[in-house]
Each structure stands twice: as C-alpha cells, then as structure tokens.
Amino acid sequence: MPAPENLSQLESRVLSLVRDEVLQTPPGFTVESDLFDAGLDSMAIMQLLLLLEEHYAVAIPVGSVSRANFKSAQTIAALLVAQGYAVTGTEAAGKPRVEPLISASPPPPAEKPLSPQARFDRLPLRDCDFFTHAFDEMLRKAGQGGHIAHSFIELDRVPDVPRLRALLADLPDQYPFPILTAQLKKPSFFSLPVWMPASNPRPLVLHLWTQEGSSGALKGHGGTVFSDLQTKLDDIINTSLPQHDDGWENVRFDLVEKADGTCVFVFSWSHLIMDGIGAEFFLLELNRQMGGASEPVPAFDLTDLNDLRGWGERWKTAKVMPAFFDSVMKKPFEALGSRKLSEGRAHFQVITLTEAQTAEAARLSAAISGPLINMPFHLACAMRAHHRVFQHRGVKPESLMCCIPIQVRRKGVRGPLFQNHLTMFFCNLLADELATLTAAAQSLHQQHTRFIKDKIGDAFRDLMWLMRPMPPGLHMTFINFHMKGKFSSFYHSNTGVFAPDLTGFGGAVVTNAYHVPSFSDPPGTGIFTNEKNGRLVLTLCWREGTLTDQERQIFIDQLMSDLGVA
Hints:
CATH superfamily of the largest domain: Nonribosomal peptide synthetase, condensation domain
Radius of gyration: 24 Å
Largest sheet: 7 strands, mixed
Shape: globular
Distance between the termini: 49 Å
Number of domains: 3
Strand order of the largest sheet: 5-4-8-9-1-15-14
Low-confidence stretches: 91-118
C-alpha cells in the first residue's frame, strides 16, 4: 500500500480501518478519541494487529502492544511510524490540528423497529444457534438438563422484591420479551425451526430462598428456608428449564438470602436464546426497568438476513473446517470426565481474587503475552491445572484440547439481548508445551493468530449454516464423529469485565458477578474467568465423579501458582 502523504492521512486511514473492521464507533469519534472507551478489548486487539500487518506491512512486537500505544488512531499511527512505516511529510510544530474527513463509510441508518408480531412470527435462528439447539437436545436426552447457563450477581442486601416480582410478571407481555417463553417450531415438514410465540406462556416466577440464621427478610415475602448455601446454589444450577408442548420456560429467576444478610440473584437462561454477553445486557435491562440509570438495549440482530450468499459461496469458506478438525484430532487428547454422556450432578466453586492478586496476575500475563492480550495466559493456566491433575492420576495424555467460544459481535455495539453471537476457537497443547507456563501461553498465542489469519472462525460459522437442515441428532453425530465423542478436554471462556455498567440492582449494590456456564460430561470440567469491581473471578465447574476433593485442591493450587497468587 503506498505511503500516505502525511501523518494526518495515516491517522485517518487507521481510524477508517478500525471503524470498518473492528469497532462500531459513536458519532463524533475522531482520531484522538479513546478506542478502549469504544469497546476495544484483547480479542479486538489481536484482530487489529493482524489488520495493521496486512495493510501496512509492519509487524508490531508484543512489548509494544500497550494501552498507551493503542489508545487512539493517532497513537497507533505514531506506533506504525516508530516501527518503520514511512510518511512523506510531518506536521508543523505547534500548528493547530484540524481533523481530516474520515473516509470510512457512514454508519448504516438505524434499523426501523419491527412490531413484536413481525419479530416473533418467524424469528429465524442464527448460524451457531443450530449447534446450540443440537447440543441442548443431546444434553436433555443424556439427563444433563440441557444447554443452560447461569449468571450470578452478588448483592450487599435484599433488593426491592415487590418491584422485581411485578416486573417479571409483566415482562412477557412487553416487547421484545415473549421470547422468554417462546418455543422452536417448524412451520412445515421441510422448513427450518424458528422461534414462535408460546400458545400458553408460563408466568415468570421469582423463587425466593432464605438461609437459616439470616434476618429472614425474604421469608416475609414467602421465601423457603434452607440450611447449606452451596447445596442450595448447586440445586439451582441443576434445575432444568421445562419445554412444554404449548410453550417453553427459557429462563428462571432465583433470589437467595444468605445468613450474613447479603443476597445472590441467579438468572438461569437457555443458551438457545442468548449468550453470556446477552445475559449481562439482560440484567442491565432488568435493572433499568426497575429505575436504574442506563440506556435501553436492542433486542435482536437481524443482519444475518442480509447475507445472501448461497451454498456454493458458503462452502468455499467452510470446506477448510473438516480438515482443520482432523488436524486437531491427530493428537489424541483426554478429558478428566467419563468417555460417554452420562447423568451427573453439576457443582461449582467461585474464587475471587483480591485487587492486589488481580494486579499480580495481570503483571504475569503482560510479561508473557503483552499487557493487553490476556486470553492465551488464562487459557494456559487452565490447561496446566488440568494437566497437573492428570499427572496426579499417573496419566500422560499426548495433548489437551479446548474449544473456546469467541464473540463475533462487532466491538462497541450495545446489544443485542437475544440470539447467540459466537464462533469457536479450537486449540491444543502437546505434553512438552505444557511443561512451562510461558511455552503454553506462547503456543496458544500463535494458534490464535493463525485462527484469525486463516479465518477459521468464519469457516466454522459457515459450516454451521450449511448444517442447518440436519436434524439435531444427526448434527451431533457429525460433531461426535470428528471430535471422537469427547468434544474437548474441558470448557473455558474469559468474558472480560462483567457488565461494567451494572453497579446496582433493584436498589442493592452489586459486590460481585460471574457466570456458571453450561457444561457436559464428557469432558466433565470447566474453568471460566471474568472480572468485576477490579477483581478477577475464577469459576471452577465439575460434574459428579469427575474430580475428588483432593484433585480439586491440586487443580486450584496449580491454577493459583500459575496466576502468581499462591
């Protein structure tokens, strides 16, 4: 690409690249505006690094990937010049800057709101929704409850129960919330399933629980008394969401009063209707409707309907995926759980680091992967913790493999609440790569770079689109064949800061928040991370019989050691 005439043009072109490929920026966004405020995160930075190398033939070293260098299009342009990209002129010292016109295409006009009837009469599934549908059906048939996840927010006191109850009672009648009780149906034998309104929608109920020894604030609202807190929370995550013939229950709400007077609000949701980021937006929307200060969040993303590519074009992208699966499977991997789907109660443990411990973990991550790219570091820690348990068992797997959900929402987009916006990153580590944390993180970083460069995420999404006509059972047969039935060595995700705008809920203060995602056996375990209130939150999940108490402690000790907080 020819060099720009001057630095100002380079800054403008960088901003155009960011706007076109990475971020949805707000009106009035300039080359000096803060990219992190607009939604730039570690995944977006990985994408941006490759775009900069492709467009400007400049490889930016990991040590230069800092917040200061990526704060704005202006600082990125300066970094490109510092790394050898030539400009033909310089700005006059002290001369007032006049922002050049941005060459990026103007943002599309806001979508005209559709009526609930237009939305729900034939609301289509997205590409990855067909996989979640098949996975949900498989888990239900295996007695594992379905593809259900849970979002926890810890509160400093009991929130406004009457207000929350009244809101939930009215919610299904408001646009766009009939999807909370909608069901998947096929309008005809040969058609694809679509979301349709329930003919008999069940009311949304707030389940109340109060622990022995508490003040009993929820008991006055009809709360049921219980004794052991962790057993009660485990009961909640093991409760399935019924799918009646005339309407499904896609969500559940539980409010748990602890003995010390604090509370936990648990939002359980079917992965068929939303993903983790959508769940965070949903909680924000609930709080807004109870008087919280935030902007409304759009409900749906219908841009998939504008993708008119046919089967031939989709296959050109998707055809690399089966070969990629085969390359991953060449190195046999193991899981700590059983070798076939079986029933088993789910358990979880939450570890919240202090601010000082969180800072130390961030320092170690920055030393290995750079200060802004933390996914390889956290995934490497999870890999090594599982590997340590295998060592304790005397098992030496040739590799460990993990498939990680990656958000495909354009960064900076507020919403939508519903529909899944995911693709999958597949990676594995050989035994020798697991020997040190640095080797593990660097290998994962390289694999993720190839994943973005080779557009494997796009290939997976198009493959899911091509597999839409398959019945769910046949869909999972295809997946099982390529993944040898084990799916993964474990489940993992890092969702970043949990709903940063969610500081209060129903009049109470949010002290912590995290997800307990859905996970199956096999593989039987999962380790999930996020941040809230400046602290790193680790959620370890396992199925009954997968980990002994001793093995769980070995796992946690290795994890904390690699995070630098043992």
